[in-house]
């Protein structure tokens, strides 16, 4: 089916107590693996792209991969732009086929962040796509941008209300104690804050830094309003390690299709595990029915 807008999807997820898994695609194989995993579970999925992946390939290539696999699939697929600060790139994504865009101006003071995010609101409205924006600073490394623990700022629920009221977001990214990358110690996730932010904003929350969180943490965050969970680092590791593992077990095999198939299967299993964990199984039909009702 054609790519879907993120806004009604995350609203459906939040209202029905599940979260949609959002994976940072690497190439065509990982894109296909995430959609096929979603298909096996009859679940929606978000294929998202970092700015650096778009720079490496191109808007055209990425849109063609995601459309190719999504259009042949019966499950809803979103193509979303993850953390981006570049308004020209954001607009080019909306223009060329992304169905959701993210502005990350979280390093700026509140008013500047809001002003920049409002410019992206205009872009999203012009192209009819979903939108994510961030307030507070999430720790760790994302797309070569580093936020140290000392610089991370947890999101204040009252600020979150003002921000979300002005922006009408599909997903609200905020800092609640999670971090991008592998955790060094036990992460301290502020569940009360997640609940307070969700109560204040009524907006589906995007939980960043999904790699390394426990099943219990996912369940508690989703029960409190996390409707999108981002996974990137875990995929990077499986992407590389699955090839190393195949080579270790088959040192004389130089048939590339068997090598990339081993990688594909490992990535698909990873995706399916997260989709299941976030409660996505069999949620696609009800979401698609809700879309038909509002059409
Ligand atoms: P991880 O790299 O920790 O999985 O976080 C991904 C993320 O939040 C992307 O925005």
Walk me through this protein's architecture:
This protein is an alpha/beta fold and 295 residues long. The chain has one domain (6-294): TIM Barrel (Alpha-Beta Barrel), CATH 3.20.20.70. It is built from 12 helices and 11 strands. The chain has an 8-stranded parallel β-sheet with strand order 3-2-1-11-10-8-5-4, sandwiched between helices. A 3-stranded mixed β-sheet has the order 7-6-9, with no helix packed on it. Helix 2 (28-41) crosses helix 11, helix 6 (110-127) packs parallel to helix 7 (157-167) and helix 10 (233-249) packs across helix 11. The two termini are 16 Å apart. The model has no long low-confidence stretch (mean pLDDT 95). It binds 1,3-dihydroxyacetonephosphate. 1,3-dihydroxyacetonephosphate binds at residues 24, 82-83, 142, 180-181, 208-211, 230-234.
Q: Strands across the major sheet, in which order?
A: 3-2-1-11-10-8-5-4
Order of helices and strands: HEHEHHEHEHEEEHEEHEHEHHH
The best one-word shape is: globular
Question: How many E strands?
Answer: 11
Helix content: 40-55%
Bound molecules: 1,3-dihydroxyacetonephosphate
Instruction: Based on the coordinates given, report the CATH architecture.
Output: Alpha-Beta Barrel
Please tell me the overall pLDDT: 95
The rounded distance between the terminal residues' Cα atoms is 16 Å
The CATH homologous superfamily: Aldolase class I
Integer-rounded radius of gyration: 18 Å
Number of domains: 1
Strand content: 15-25%
Seen as an oligomer or otherwise, the chain set is single chain
CATH class: Alpha Beta
Examine the coordinates and then state which fold CATH places here, giving the name of the CATH topology.
TIM Barrel
């Amino acid at each position: 089916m054609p790519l879907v807008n993120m806004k009604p999807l995350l609203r459906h997820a939040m209202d029905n107590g599940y979260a949609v898994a959002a994976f940072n695609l690497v190439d065509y194989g990982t894109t296909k693996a995430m959609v096929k995993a979603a298909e096996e579970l009859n679940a929606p999925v978000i294929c998202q792209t970092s700015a650096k992946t778009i720079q490496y390939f191109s808007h055209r290539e990425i849109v063609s991969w995601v459309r190719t696999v999504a259009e042949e699939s019966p499950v809803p697929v979103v193509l979303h732009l993850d953390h981006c600060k570049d308004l020209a790139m954001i607009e080019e994504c909306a223009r060329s086929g992304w169905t959701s865009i993210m502005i990350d101006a979280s390093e700026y003071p509140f008013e500047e962040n809001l002003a920049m995010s409002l410019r992206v609101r205009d872009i999203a409205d012009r192209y009819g796509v979903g939108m994510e924006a961030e307030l507070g600073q999430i720790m760790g490394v994302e797309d070569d941008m580093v936020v140290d623990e000392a610089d991370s700022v947890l999101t204040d629920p009252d600020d979150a209300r003002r921000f979300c009221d002005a922006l009408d977001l599909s997903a609200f990214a905020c800092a609640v104690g999670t971090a991008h990358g592998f955790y060094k110690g036990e992460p301290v996730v502020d569940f009360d804050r997640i609940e307070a932010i969700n109560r204040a904003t009524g907006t589906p929350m995007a939980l960043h830094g999904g790699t390394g969180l426990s099943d219990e943490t996912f369940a508690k965050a989703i029960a409190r309003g996390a409707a999108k969970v981002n996974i990137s680092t875990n995929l990077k590791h499986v992407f590389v390690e699955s090839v190393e593992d195949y080579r270790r077990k088959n040192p004389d095999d130089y048939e590339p299709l068997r090598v990339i198939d081993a990688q594909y299967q490992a990535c698909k299993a990873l995706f399916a595990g997260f989709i299941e964990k976030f409660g996505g199984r069999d949620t696609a039909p009800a979401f698609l029915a809700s879309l038909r009702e509002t059409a």
